[in-house]
Amino acid sequence: MSEEAVNKEDQAAVPEQPVLSEAAAVMAAGGEPVKVTDAAKKKGKGKSIPAGIVYIRSTFNNTLVSITDARGGVIAWSSAGKAGFKGSRKCTAFAATMVAQDAARQAVAKGMHEVEVRVQGAGAGRESAVRAIQSAGIHVTLLKDCTPIPHNGCRPRKRRRV
């Protein structure tokens, strides 16, 4: 037999299969499709977030910076303890600068370039944290002090007698 005759017999023996989509082909092959886990979805780069809000909480013992989108979902955060400071070094202005730079770098990597800053507390790192955010390449549109102020608050302790 010639080669052409052998090819025609092989083609006649195998019925022609209809063209299937990729998903249908995988199902027909018997294997289950590989599912993408939730962790893999979260790892992938999401949408670029151009504007957001920076919350700086500067206490006498620590400085916390969290950067959120406009709806309040946290995009990046940092604290003096996370930056590697311990004890009394956490409440310094230098620690606040490092904390704000760390959080700002994370936000810039996700596409943020414009923020409004809300500062809370009376710690040493208030101004230095705002300067660090500006130096990281983020444009500050609004600076607001959200420190809670008591309107005659709770009753003070009794007076000391000497």
SSE map:
Elements: H1 3-13, H2 22-29, H3 38-43, E1 51-58, E2 63-68, E3 74-79, H4 93-109, E4 114-120, H5 126-135, E5 139-145
Parallel strand pairs: 1-4, 4-5
Antiparallel strand pairs: 1-2, 2-3
List keywords for this structure.
162 residues, alpha/beta, Nucleotidyltransferase, domain 5, 2 domains, 5 helices, 32% helix, elongated
Number of DSSP helical runs: 5
Strand order of the main beta sheet, please? 3-2-1-4-5
Mean pLDDT: 83
CA gyration radius, whole angstroms: 30 Å
Q: What composes the largest sheet?
A: 5 strands, mixed
CATH superfamily of the largest domain: Ribosomal protein S11/S14
Low-confidence sequence ranges = none
CATH class of the largest domain: Alpha Beta
Count of the domains: 2
**What is the N-to-C order of secondary-structure elements (H for helix, E for strand)?**
HHHEEEHEHE
- What is the general shape? elongated
Number of strands: 5
Helix fraction bin: 25-40%
- Derived structural class: alpha/beta
CATH architecture of the largest domain: 2-Layer Sandwich
Using the coordinates shown, work out and report the CATH topology of the largest domain.
Nucleotidyltransferase, domain 5
- How far is it from the N-terminal to the C-terminal residue, by CA? 122 Å
Q: Strand-residue fraction?
A: 15-25%
